[in-house]
Amino acid sequence: MEKIKNRVCKVFIDNSYKSFNIALEKTNINDVYDAVLIITDQNVYNSQLNKFVASIKAKTIYEYIIPHGEESKSLEVYEEIMKYCIKINLSRKSVIIALGGGVVGDLVGFVASTYMRGIDVIQVPTTLLAQVDSSIGGKTGINLGNLKNIIGTFYQPKFTYTNVESLKTLPYKEFLGGMAEVIKYGFIYDYEFLNYLVENSENILDRDTECLFYIVEKCASIKAHIVEQDENEGGLRKILNFGHTFGHGVEKLCGISHGEAVSIGMHMAFKLSLKEEFIEEKYYNKFVEVCKLYDLPLTFEGIDEEKVFEVMKNDKKNSFSKINLVLPVGLGRVEIMNNIKETLIIDIIKRCKNA
After folding, report:
1. Could you say which of 150, 153, 240, 246 would form a disulfide bridge with 265 (CB–CB 3.0 to 4.6 Å)?
2. What is the model's pTM?
3. Which of 168, 201, 216 lies at the terminal end of a domain, its last residue?
4. Which residues participate in Zn(2+) binding (predicted)?
5. So what's the pLDDT on residue 156?
């Protein structure tokens, strides 16, 4: 079991759930909880819950199952979970464990941060996207209409425990979606990491345990390092949103996965930077090459570019009525810009739409 040393984010990475109690002991919080509530979705319940429960030493364990999918990040599901917490007499001496992907982690983190003004939460991510990104850093949230994560908090988990073997239970397409977030780290922070992803693509797609461990540890370390410097997203942490502002509009309106939307969103950002001559065409081609290796989409269809732009204007990361975009400006480097003309943004969206 490997631990990422960090002041803000405690992350343990292993290839099984057997070391979970060791992680509890290392964080000095073992045997302090009067009850454990595990919240997961139907898919993870079917494939992993029993193995995880068997690894926990606790007298009282409750389970709560939510439907799989983004629709569960709603006020209605949030209220239902709160009522259940009250029903089972969950107290400030209890802990909630989020066992699942990004939806489960965001929702459960918000529940824990607001129940009785905040009780302990532990993140146990089971998808690649959650293991390398959303389970680390303390962002929680639920959606309201077309507004993604508009309701939420910054609330650090006691720790994040990652079992890379859980990635082998994922549907192939969901694993590929997670690779979009993995690739993102190379373009925002560590250009050499992209070479590893290219050279080892076959083994990564075969979900070789050693490769999985390496990419999860690499991305989690970068994320934890960035969050340590900017916990509440006042500056540096904003670069983690690369591809997300463009992507959220496509995700919501096209009904595609978050990872696919991030891939398309990063492509829009690269297209814009190329047009504005922030980058050279060779770098743009590198991005396209990596995405094609992992069969990630670069375009969308069926939605008017104006509608995508309207969703972007409501993005919570904007300020002073200006759209904040994270754009590539060099090898492994991005900058946050808010002075891009609306007409240019709409044109770029249109260029990434299938005819």
Report:
1. 246
2. 0.92
3. 168
4. 181, 244, 258
5. 96
Give catalytic residue positions: 117, 139, 181, 223, 233, 237, 241, 244, 248, 258
Quote the domain boundaries for residue 25: 2-168
Q: Which pair of tokens denotes residue 53? A: 């429960």
Q: Are 333 and 194 in contact (CB under 8 A)?
A: no
Split into its structural domains, the chain has a count of 2
Instruction: Report how far residue 114's alpha carbon sits from residue 311's, in angstroms, rounded to the nearest whole number.
Output: 27
Judgement on whether residues 140 and 34 belong to the same structural domain of the protein: yes
**Contact of 52 with 17, CB cutoff 8 Å:** yes
Max CA distance (Å), the chain: 61
For residue 68, say whether it is annotated as part of any ligand binding site: no
181 among annotated binding-site residues: yes
* In a shared domain, residues 17 and 85: yes
Q: Are residues 163 and 280 in the same domain?
A: no
Q: Which amino acid is at 279?
A: I
| Dihedral in degrees, nearest 10, Cα atoms 132, 57, 156, 313 | 60
Share of the chain above pLDDT 70, in %: 97
Q: What are the tokens at 84? A: 């259940």
Same domain, 145 and 184: no
Mean pLDDT of 188-196: 96
Residue 83: per-residue pLDDT: 98
